[in-house]
Structures are given as C-alpha cells and as structure tokens.
Amino acid sequence: MASRHPAPSWPMDATRLPQPGIGLALAATAILLVGFCGATALFAWHVQQIGGIAGAWANEPPALIGVGAFALGTALALVAFFAVMLSVLRNAPVWHAAASVLSDIPSEPVDGREYPFGDIQPEEYVLKPVEGGWWFGLKAKNLHYGFRWFGIPWMTLVSGVIVLVIWRYTDNPRAIKAAFTCFLAFACGMMCVIFWYLPKMIKALPFAAIDLASGVCKLGPEPITSIPLDQIVAVQLCACQRRRQDSITNGIEVNLVWQPESEDAEPDMQKYRRMTLMFIVGPSVCRKARLAGELAEKLGVPLVCHATAEHWRLERRAAKLRQPAQIKWPTFGKKLRTANL
Question: 283 Cβ partners below 8 Å, 6+ apart?
Fold first, then answer.
C-alpha cells in the first residue's frame, strides 16, 4: 500500500501554521483555573470555620460537596490550561509544497457560506489501511461510546446529586423545589437526547476511501462520488472563517482537489473541483495538518498550503463580505451508505 510517488517531485517548504483563537483559549482556561481555585479555597475556608470535615458532614454536607465539585473543576481547568499550553509549544512547522506549485488552485474556502451540521467539529479523524487501499475519515466508534455511554450517565448522575441536595439540605418551599426539579429534568433530558443523536450526525460527515486496486477514490457521505486517482491533483489546507449572526469560527479546511477530464467538465465549471474532508479547529491544527500531509503522501500529490498568516489576513477581510452561514442538519430518516473497498 505504498504511495503512487515514492518521493515528492516538487519543491517543498515549511510553515508554522497560525492557530486562530489560541490566545483567547489560553486566557479563558486561565480565568477558569483562577475562578475554580478561588471558589475551592472559599469553600475550604468555610468548612474549616464550621468545624472541619466532621463538623461539615454533621451540620452542612453541601459545603463538602462544594469543595469536592470545585476541586474537580480546578483539576479539569488545570488539565485544559496545560493542554492549550502544550499545543502552543508543539506547533512545529508543517512541510508542504512551495507556493509556486499549483498556484492556480483557488485559495478561498469551500464551505465558507454554510455550516456542515452546525458547530460539530470532531477531532477523531484517522487515516488507516484497509483491504485494497486507505480510508480517511472520522473514527466514529470512540465518539459513539464517549457520547452515549459516558455523557448520558454523567449528566444523569450530576442532575440526581443536585436534586438530592436541593430536597434534603435546603429550606425553600416545596413548589420552588418541584419547579427547579422539573426544569433540571427537562434540561438533563435535552442534553441526553443531544448526546444520543450526536454520533448519528457525526457519521454523516465526509470521508474518503482510496481503492488502489481499481484506481478510484470514493468520497462520501451519500451520494457517493467516485473520482479516478489520476484526476486528484492536491490536498489543500485552506484558511476559513465561518461566520454566523451570533458567532465566528476560525479553522482550516482540508480539501481534496481534483481536475476532471475535459470531456467530463460541465460548462461554466472551474478548472478544479474541491471537497472539504475535515475542518480543523482548536489546538489540533498542527497534528491534523500532518494527517492531511499523510493523506497527500498516500495519494502521491502535493499538500498545498493556503493557511499562512497572509492567507488568514485575506480570509478575514473576505469573510466580512460573505453572507452569514446557514446550518445544514442531517436527516435521520434515511440510512447513510458507506463506501466499501
């Protein structure tokens, strides 16, 4: 299952990709860490004032619950802070084709006008060998177990503990307790429904199945598009700012670029056609960009980088002129097909 070209025949360059929003993420995790630390210290001081752990357990158990909850929040915020810091430190240069290679490929994003499936930006993409070729897409099995078998029990447990504390250790009227319990049950139910349907939505995200034996690349989801491997010319990293009326998401599109044969080209169609396989956001820019480079290597085509600082400057300017993005939600009535090699 070697690549079609053992070594690149085009000039190479190395670029340290900008990480949009990394400063904001670092500041947000730092604020959360300071806030949770302060709340933990305040609850611990209160427990000490009412007689330590034994006194709090006998007279005010919610104080102990508060110490434990905020201590757990402090630990999680600390992990998030160090994860963001590690992403900054590990942002090594990414090797790609020089700017002169395939310079006529469009540098504007493919999906800049609409959100594929809302704000879902999964991380677990893989490039794995399969019988007869390679498969690039989402490792949905881990997300399936994570969302359903961790998210739902966790939400139910937290909601149950909150309801127990409200009914046993507060002096509010029964009507207020009942109203809060109903609201919490509704919110928990909605979150459980979201956790249950997220894997189905994720399975509708794009994938590429490379069949080396037949020389075809199948692009999904439905309808499956089959492209001869000799028509694929590049894998593209493209800066993209997706705007909605209430939010802005900065990320990098990983686009598959192919050039149809002249007899297959439609009138008024651009020279190249592109399809977004992955949208990189957050602290995984460098790692996922290398995964895109591996995909380009397996296909034997250059990795074209349109996500430099200069491309980001132009994209932010162009994004202001585009219409706000629309959300495209998948339908669950039809069973999605997958490409079998």
Answer: 19, 22, 25, 83, 84, 86, 87, 88
Longest Cα–Cα distance of the chain, Å, equals 84
Tokens of 120: 């879902």
Of 88, 36, 104, 33, which is closest to residue 271 (Cα–Cα)?
104
Residue 93: asked if its preceding bond is cis (omega within 30°), the reply is no
Q: State the chain's mean pLDDT as an integer.
A: 76
Handedness of CA 205, 210, 211, 215 (dihedral sign): positive
Higher pLDDT, 128 or 270: 128
* Structure tokens that stand for 338 in this block: 């997958």
**8-state DSSP, 70:** H
pTM comes to 0.67
Place of tokens 């380009």: 296
Per-residue pLDDT band at 67 (split at 50, 70, 90): confident
The bridge status of strand 114-116 relative to strand 216-220 is: unpaired
